[in-house]
Write a structure and sequence with these properties.
The complex is a heterotrimer. By secondary structure, chain A is of the alpha/beta class. Chain A has 10 helices and 11 strands. The longest helix of chain A is centred in the N-terminal third of the chain and has 16 residues. Chain C contains 7 helices and 6 strands. Chain C is globular and about 45 Å long. The chains are: A alpha/beta, B alpha/beta, C alpha/beta.
């Protein structure tokens, strides 16, 4: 295993980038990055053929460290840039990594429309339930009652489920994982990239610095334990009383539907247009 | 669209001619959002691009439209979007990204009365300074104005060429008059259109530095997927494309952005002159208003008044040399605009109060007529 | 006054095909006769219902100002449009009205033809009145021949309505030929004003 890790590190990390990275010690983003690299390696995608786009925030820095075609865009807009790239060069595998605020607050409109459009992109959304880089303000996924620097009396808004939002908006593949369940996470990312059409992997991740410390989970271990204890596989959820599911969340594949994707459909349009002229 | 095969002459609206110009320049990607009075560009692109192997997509808003345009350009495809004032305001964020990441793209803004929803169906020229300074931060940018259907074709080709050559977003300012006026235009055949493509790297990938300075200040640009893996960011970056805060690298980066455009002034700053040789009074105008100005100048000449017209095609970088030369030559310069005086502000800046300047500002949603300009010329 | 420009304004209500008529006129003059043309129209809410106008400027020289300054011809397809756009004429300009819908005439230098009635009789569709009017314009406008108008029309109208529209166009030209222009007053400007 250490040998394998060293090989992956050498193959995929950018050695001309001035490490260390910007993330806090124990941050879940590193685990997501590891999972993403393992998934790409498993899939055997050439580094030249992969585009990794991001928005703004801690997650936004992730592409900087890996040796793909990488793109650090504006806040919330990663999917719009990814859309242009994929349409211009459909042979590329295009992924966008985003945070919860990035993807579903400022980028919420782009997110639901990307899902509706079903263009062949993979959205990796790191959900740490907080705006980390800007200093711990509440995000669309901050749970009711939690503390944040902009909800110091307790949060009075209700969080929404990114995975449910994606599935309702029409994504072809939706899964949720956590940074604790990494073996599963690797598989979910592999499946998501393989899926034609728009795929989403929401990843529950720990920001113990900005979220955990204000909400009685001040270190990575406590937060990992929280993920471990509150994550429920969909098949297990059936055996649990609905009341006790309140503070739980499901992990695994939550939606997987077959529908024509945008690239295929647009090729038909091109064929028709060429036939007409 | 009807065509006479012998003459290759067609009757087109300004908006349609922009599409023809873009396609002739090699544009094969368009992303946009419906907005009056620019929508014909979207509609025609959606009909024409798929048959050419290109791609049209209607996005969820103008922010997304410019995002997709930048993405497609990064993947090596020449890209266009078109909008009007409210949409142009939304694009400012990603416009800054195109500047800092040096992504060629062309943005058409068919100006309408503003601010806000304003006068959606009326002509105006109120976005001139927004085009220059709309996105935040210090940045050079190229802004061009069209005045006729034939301009719409040639300036659009030009805009793509400048954008590709200097790796800079180029904004084309049109207005409702130009957008919807139909005129005959003899379309150039593809072979006769001069098309400039971005320079791509000619070194092995391991030697490639995506933002390395060179004599022109414009680094070669590799398309995503062409084997030159690199990082693109909206943060200030070093020659590798990686974020930097080192003062020396930051300053060198920003100065290069300006230098590359300054190097191209002679080519980028385009104007047209009419009856300027012996002019004693000049009208300086741009966009559709320059047509009213031309009519007024012709009439003034008939009355023996030595009037001339300096038409600005490029608004930014501000064509200082041509404007100063007109200011030095003439006793009086008149500036008609469909705004409260956005270009006259620039002209006054370079005039330094030496030549008499008369502004003529129309802000009622109506096109400036030749009579208005002629009457003022007559009074001088 | 600018003699080198021939300026036509077509007006009526939204839905009467005013803009299409203007585009066909511009194409006939610009593409098939080889003149310089500029065609513009009212844009915005007024284009749907209410009165609307479309303009065509024709010249042998490049056209700078793209809009009408002094009309050589005004086509008015209803009373509201006639009232609204009857101004800025050259003295020898000509008013052309659909006498089915315009009853009060602002001048005697007018060619009144019942375009809508002719359309109903010839094609059974009042909607083709615009093409009847265009036929009349083809006869009255010295810069466009009927043949050019026919060629432009064929390309601009849907295939399945081509024959019907052509018939309407020809009927309009025929009606205009029956008018004796020489019998009209020479100037559109009232005599009284000229004497003042």
């Amino acid at each position: 295993m250490p040998q394998e890790m060293t090989e992956l590190r050498d193959k995929y990390l950018r050695h001309d980038k001035k490490f260390p990275h910007v993330w806090c010690p124990g941050c879940g983003n590193g685990i997501v990055l590891g999972s993403l690299i393992r998934a790409v390696d498993t899939l055997g995608i050439e580094k030249d053929d992969l585009v990794l786009a991001s928005g703004i925030g801690c997650s936004g820095r992730l592409p900087t460290y890996v040796d793909f075609n990488t793109l650090h865009t504006t806040h919330g807009r990663a999917l719009t840039f990814a859309t242009g790239i994929k349409l211009a060069k459909p042979t590329l595998t295009v992924m966008a990594v985003m945070g919860d605020g990035d993807a579903t607050a400022i980028g919420g409109n782009h997110f639901i429309h990307a899902a509706r459009r079903n263009l062949d992109l993979t959205a990796i959304i790191i959900n740490n339930q907080i705006y980390g880089m800007t200093g711990g303000q509440h995000s669309p996924t901050t749970p009711y009652g939690c503390k944040a620097t902009t909800s110091s009396y307790g949060h009075i808004e209700h969080a929404f489920s990114i995975a449910d939002l994606a599935a309702t908006a029409g994504a072809a593949y939706v899964a949720r994982g956590t940074v604790y369940h990494t073996t599963m996470l690797d598989k979910l990312i592999v499946q998501a990239v393989q899926k034609p059409g728009f795929s989403v992997v929401e990843i529950m991740s720990n920001c113990h610095i900005q979220f955990g410390r204000r909400n009685e989970m001040p270190d990575p271990v406590t937060m990992m334990n929280w993920f471990k204890e509150h994550a429920v596989r969909p098949d297990q959820a059936d055996n649990i009383a609905p009341d006790s599911l309140d503070d739980k969340f499901t992990i695994g594949v939550l939606a997987d539907v077959e529908k024509p994707n945008y690239i295929e459909e647009y090729q038909h349009i091109r064929d028709r247009a060429k036939g007409d002229s | 669209m009807a065509s006479n095969r012998k003459k290759k002459t067609v009757l087109l609206q300004g908006n349609e001619a922009i599409v023809e110009g873009a396609l002739a320049a090699g544009c094969r990607f368009f992303a946009g959002y419906p907005i009056t009075p620019a929508s014909e560009i979207n509609e025609l692109m959606s009909a024409k691009l798929p048959g050419l192997g290109g791609t049209f997509i209607q996005m969820e808003d103008e922010i997304a439209s410019l995002g997709a345009v930048i993405g497609a350009s990064l993947a090596g495809v020449k890209s266009l979007t078109a909008t009007s004032g409210p949409g142009f305001s939304l694009m400012q964020e990603n416009l800054g990204y195109a500047c800092i990441a040096e992504v060629p793209c062309v943005i058409v803004n068919v100006m309408r009365g503003g601010p806000s929803t304003g006068l959606p169906t009326s002509p105006a020229q109120g976005d001139v300074l927004q085009a220059r300074w709309g996105t935040h931060g210090d940045h050079p940018i190229v802004v061009m104005a069209v005045s006729s259907v034939s301009d719409c074709f040639s300036v659009t080709v030009n805009a793509f060429n400048i954008s590709e050559k200097y790796r800079v977003p180029v904004i084309i300012l049109s207005d409702e008059v130009v957008a919807h006026t139909r005129e005959t235009i003899t379309l150039s055949t593809p072979e006769t259109v001069e098309v400039v493509d971005r320079i791509t790297p000619n070194v092995p990938p391991e030697w490639y530095l995506p933002y390395e300075d060179n004599s022109r200040g414009v680094p070669p640009m590799a398309a995503m997927g062409d084997g030159y893996r690199h990082h693109v960011t909206g943060l200030i970056h070093d020659a590798h494309g990686y974020p930097t805060q080192r003062p020396k690298e930051v300053e060198a980066f920003t100065r290069r952005q300006f230098r590359k455009i300054t190097n191209g002034f002679y080519e980028i700053q385009q104007v047209k002159k009419f009856h300027m040789d012996d002019a004693e009074i000049a009208v300086i105008a741009y966009g559709a208003v320059s047509r009213s100005a031309h009519r007024a100048v012709v009439r003034a000449r008939e009355q023996g008044i030595k009037a001339g017209l300096l038409q600005l095609i490029t608004l930014f970088p501000f064509p200082k040399t041509a404007v100063v030369s007109a200011l030095r030559q003439c006793n009086t310069v008149m500036i008609p605009e469909m705004n409260m005086g956005q270009i006259s502000r620039e002209i006054k800046r370079v005039n330094q109060e030496k030549t008499k300047i008369i502004k003529h500002n129309r802000i009622d949603g109506q096109f400036i007529t030749p009579d208005e300009i002629y009457d003022k010329l007559l009074r001088e | 006054m600018d003699e080198e420009r021939y300026e036509v304004r077509l007006s009526g209500s939204g839905g009467q095909g005013i803009i299409l008529a203007a585009v066909i006129l511009a194409e006939a003059a610009g593409i098939y006769e080889g003149h310089h043309v500029c065609q513009a129209q009212s844009y915005g809410p007024e284009a749907r219902g209410g009165k609307c106008k479309a303009e065509v400027v024709i010249s042998d020289n490049p056209i700078d100002y793209p809009k009408v300054t002094q009309q050589d011809m005004l086509l008015a397809m209803n009373q509201a449009a006639c009232d609204a756009y009857f101004f800025d004429f050259k003295p020898n300009g000509l008013l052309l009205v659909d006498s089915t819908l315009v009853e009060q005439l602002p001048t005697s230098r007018v060619v009144a033809i019942p375009f809508t009635q002719i359309a109903r009789e010839k094609t059974g569709k009042a909607i083709t009145a615009n093409m009847v009017a265009l036929g009349a314009i083809a006869h009255l406008c010295p810069l466009v021949k009927l043949k050019s108008m026919e060629s432009a029309l064929k390309i601009r109208v849907p295939k399945d309505t081509r024959d019907m529209n052509l018939e309407a166009l020809k009927a309009g030209a025929k009606a205009a030929r029956a008018i004796n222009l020489a019998s009209l007053p020479r100037s559109i400007i009232p005599q009284e004003e000229e004497e003042i």
